[in-house]
Design brief:
heterotrimer; A: mainly alpha; 12 helices; 0% strand; globular; B: mainly alpha; 11 helices
Chain lengths: 310, 268, 380
């Protein structure tokens, strides 16, 4: 009786509180996504944008083939018709995976140290990790243009070093290496924070117990700390992997000729080739890719969680 | 300090160096007396003077501030409501709607909003379109922070309020809101920062004639790079640093108040 | 347990207790500061604003200021660095521009779409200043919609000392496409990140027209490009200017006025090399930029005033003197610096002019094909 009453009392409040955000997001998140799906099934306009649903009454001088209207699978055929697009997706996955791995290797020791530090120092250290994030994202990428440029101190140093072994000069900038460095640099805080949040909650007594049982430092880490930190590892990895998949600014600014990723291709369709249907197809494919990665991450996190409980 | 910790410290210092050296480079070159960022020539404040006279840049900064304010205001409002709703009520749809934009690559959101604004709303792109777009992706962040705070709170305090006869609104106003305020403020600040810094979504949803700071910087990087870009970022970094120092000073005071109010920080 | 959570969250999160008020005051200061700046620069209330959609750095600041005074109005510019970008934004419905400065083929598109307002020649007495050679293009016969503004040639810019030392030719596309030349400058060359421009250069080198739409010829051009690609440092539309002047690049495929800028920068920063540029003998792309009126603009009178203003010889010359762009305005010649007026790369001989072509737009099927070819080129 009391539960029902409470439920009924909740109803109006529920609408007031949940209503506005729900409406807002339905309008500005769900609707646009649906529009994008619809767009992928349409013809591109003669001059960009989209062709009308039905033949328009206003005559438009055709350049080539007559204007086609209505719905079509043309854009999807175009996508599946050439293996090049699958290759770009694979490439983007590879870059995302590499970035995630490097971020993990770099972030883990730092997160561990912060988690084990004195409480006041901890806050400062977390702050220091987050602070670079406060500067403009483009500037952080641009800084690497300066550092990796062919005339920079670093380039000179590395090339002199290589020269001593008779190896040719390498260009650090406008290369896959530069793209990777840029990606890691931009996403590192996203790996540190979830890891730290997880590691901080670890119970020290477990490690002490392991030590008492004679486990070496390495074993203590591998058998106790690492498994417990897996949920943090997975959420950090997801927070890095997914944004990297969709990035275009880093390859755009730091990348070389062949370093385009799926994000660049999508951007080109909308702001370059003006092929909206194809751009939508690419976006939908990217969304599917992201959803599968997110699903995998969630599944891993859950299964490692149950292991821990057991 | 044990041997293991020493390695950790070394690794940590290397990572911090990795994080900060590029920023130091940007700052140092903002004082470089050369139009190119290639090598150090001499010290000058020319670029800061140029910056202060750069009408476009100042306009861009103003527009970005306006957008960030508006977006963080609406995002905080909607996000707090969402966070509350998700925590309190057993909702199925709202969590998905709220948290997905956070997880999605920004380009997808930017592109779909562009299509939506033009095709369906026939909205002329401008400040309004950017504010809406920014709000959409910031709501999730606020909701996450508010909800996390709520999850860490003791439910009994709400039950107590209800038992004492407080209505939902009273409970919210006098109990919930003060308790979640730090999270709300943190969410507001997060939205503000995200909005000022946002490049991708702004790139797709911006309109004509109104310069926006990150786009301005992007154009400068790709086209007419002068150390003026370095000057802008140095100032922005300085601003954030000052804000955070002041905030931490105030936090120390606030923590003292809070500790006495809730009866102990580390104990119990 | 609860208290510990609270205090832990009190840490980073309640940091920002007073931030809102601080931010508020900063923002107000900022807005007020900018507001004052603007007010002092212009007359009070009801000020007219002319919206320009233009290439970067395509109007001299002095010219803008003078026009501002002349018309008692304000100019607001939005920029693009690529015609495609401009067209895409317009196709996406961007509105409110009074004046746009598109290149020939983009203008072709705009005219066909019907989004331009015809010009009222009676408001443009200075129109007679334009060199007839640049009027009556295939895109706009009779110049109903457009007034030529400036032109650039897509050519090659290079570090003269380096290329001389390596004994490389500087008057042919071969130096961009032939591995035998590229070996010597590997990693020091960039080409434009524009499918149309690069394909045009390749097609010209192969002896075809830049507007060739034969799929086989396109495949040939793509193969030529792929063969040369490993030697190129990057596909780049803008920062090659900086890199050439800094000495990082020795050769670049780019626009004549960008090369002018690079040469100027190199000289000004006291580099030990000089940047020169030349039009390859096989021919190249001529980009004629014209002023047009977009139908979404609402300042038609002001726009006409601006066009007429820019048609004055003295004003037209300012842009050329600033960025080294080609000038179709005969009245401007006396005002142009002699070293620019005599530069064959900026003001080509009539003979070379015949081998320069203006790009025409493609239909949607051709655009898609080009897009795929381009993706393959980028990825292989």
């Amino acid at each position: 009786m009391k539960a029902e009453e409470a439920q009924r009392k909740q109803q109006p409040a529920k609408f007031f509180v949940a209503g506005p955000p729900m409406l807002f997001l339905l309008l500005f998140f769900v609707a646009p996504s649906l529009i994008m799906i619809v767009t992928s099934f349409r013809f591109p306009g003669e001059f960009g944008g989209l062709a009308p649903f039905a033949p328009s009454s206003v005559p438009v001088a055709p350049i080539g083939t007559p204007v086609e209207t209505g719905f079509t699978l043309e854009a999807y055929e175009f996508f599946f018709g050439d293996i090049i697009y699958a290759k770009i997706f694979l490439k983007s996955f590879a870059v995302a995976a590499a970035t995630t791995l490097i971020c993990l290797v770099m972030a883990y020791p730092l997160a561990l140290l912060i988690a084990r530090s004195d409480k006041r120092l901890r806050n400062l250290m977390v702050l220091l990790v987050v602070l670079p994030f406060a500067s403009n994202f483009l500037i952080r990428i641009y800084a690497w243009m300066i550092i990796l440029g062919p005339e920079s101190a670093l380039s000179h140093f590395i090339n002199t070093f290589l020269g001593a072994f008779g190896l040719g000069p390498v260009s650090l900038l406008f290369s896959p290496f530069a793209v990777l460095v840029g990606m890691v640099y931009v996403h590192l805080p996203f790996m540190v924070l979830p890891l730290y949040t997880n590691l901080e909650k670890h119970d020290r007594s477990l490690l002490d117990a392991a030590q008492d049982l004679g486990a070496a430092r390495w074993q203590r880490f591998w058998r106790v700390t690492w498994p417990l930190s897996l949920p943090g590892v997975f959420s950090g990895s997801a927070l890095v992997f997914i944004p990297v998949l969709g990035m275009f600014a880093v390859p755009d600014i730091l990348g070389g000729t062949g370093d385009i990723l799926i994000g660049n291709l999508i951007k080109d369709q909308f702001l370059g080739t003006r092929d909206w249907p194809f751009g939508s197809v690419l976006s939908i494919m990217l969304t599917l890719a992201v959803l599968s990665v997110a699903g995998l991450a969630a599944w891993f996190a859950r299964s490692s969680g149950t292991e821990r409980a057991g | 300090m044990s041997r293991g910790n020493r390695w950790l410290w070394l690794a940590a210092i290397l990572v911090y160096a990795f994080l900060y050296i590029p920023l130091a480079v940007v700052v140092i070159y903002s004082f470089n007396d050369s139009r190119l960022n290639a090598e150090w020539v001499g010290f000058t404040l020319l670029w800061y003077k140029t910056l202060l006279n750069d009408h476009e840049m100042l306009l861009a900064a103003r527009n970005s501030l306006i957008i960030a304010f508006s977006a963080s205001l609406s995002a905080t409002l909607l996000g707090t409501m969402a966070g509350l709703a998700i925590h309190r009520y057993n909702l199925k749809v709202l969590p998905v709607l709220v948290f997905t934009p956070v997880a999605m690559p920004e380009i997808l959101l930017g592109v779909s909003l562009l299509l939506f604004f033009l095709q369906v709303l026939h909205l002329t792109l401008g400040m309004a379109s950017i504010i809406i777009a920014h709000t959409t992706f910031c709501v999730g962040f606020v909701a996450i922070i508010v909800r996390a705070r709520l999850q860490g709170m003791d439910e009994s305090i709400f039950e107590a309020a209800r038992d004492l006869g407080a209505s939902s609104w009273q409970t919210f106003r006098l109990v919930t809101l003060p308790l979640i305020m730090p999270a709300v403020v943190a969410g507001a600040l997060m939205s503000f920062t995200l909005s000022i810094d946002d490049f991708v979504i702004t790139f797709f949803t911006k309109g004509v004639g109104e310069p926006i700071l990150p786009i301005q910087i992007y154009t400068m990087i790709k086209v007419a790079v002068t150390p003026e870009v370095n000057a802008v970022s140095t100032l922005l970094m300085l601003l954030t640093l000052v804000m955070i120092i002041i905030a931490s000073r105030l936090e120390a005071n606030a923590l003292a108040d809070k500790t006495s109010a809730t009866g102990g920080g580390t104990g119990t | 347990m609860t208290c510990r959570t609270d205090s832990r969250q009190a840490g980073p999160k309640s940091f920002f207790r007073a931030i809102p008020s601080l931010l508020m005051s900063l923002a107000i200061l900022f807005a007020a500061g900018c507001g004052n700046h603007e007010k002092s620069a212009n007359s009070a209330g009801g000020e007219k604003v002319l919206h320009l959609f233009n290439w970067n750095n395509y109007v001299a600041p002095e010219t803008l200021d003078r026009f501002s005074e002349f018309c008692n109005c304000r100019l607001s510019q939005d920029y693009y660095s690529d015609n495609e970008e401009m067209l895409a934004k317009l196709a996406a419905g961007a509105a409110g521009y009074d004046l746009i400065v598109p290149t020939g083929n983009a203008m072709d598109t705009l005219i066909r779409q019907g989004v331009l307002n015809p010009l009222d020649k009676s408001l443009l007495p200075n129109f007679k200043n334009i060199n007839p050679a640049y009027l009556d293009t295939a895109f706009d016969p009779g110049n109903k919609y457009s007034v030529p503004y400036a032109y650039t040639i897509t050519l090659i810019g290079f570090n003269r000392e380096k290329l001389e030392a390596l004994d490389l030719p500087t008057d042919t596309w071969a130096v961009i496409f032939e591995p035998e030349h590229l070996e010597k400058i590997k990693g020091r060359v960039t080409v434009l990140d524009s499918p149309r421009e690069l394909m045009a250069a390749a097609l010209k080198y192969l002896g075809y027209s830049a507007n060739d739409i034969d799929e086989h010829h396109w495949k040939q051009a793509a193969e030529l490009i792929l063969r040369a690609k490993p030697y190129w440092a990057a596909f780049n539309n803008t920062s090659y200017v900086r890199e050439l002047a800094a000495g990082n690049l020795w050769l670049a495929h780019g626009y004549s006025n960008d090369m002018f800028q690079a040469a100027h920068d190199a000289a000004k920063t006291g580099r030990r090399f000089t940047i020169e540029y030349s039009t390859p003998k096989e021919g190249a792309v001529l980009a004629l930029d014209s002023m047009v009126l977009h139908r979404s603009g609402n300042q038609s009178d002001l726009a006409h005033q601006f066009i007429n203003f820019m048609l004055e010889g003295k004003n037209a010359a300012e842009l050329t003197n600033l960025v080294g762009s080609g000038n179709p305005n005969m009245g401007a010649m006396p005002y142009i610096k002699p070293e620019i007026a005599n530069n064959k790369a900026i003001f080509p001989d009539p003979e070379l002019l015949t081998r320069l072509e203006m790009l025409r737009d493609l239909d949607r099927k051709q655009r898609r094909l080009l897009s795929r070819l381009w993706t393959e080129i980028k990825l292989k």
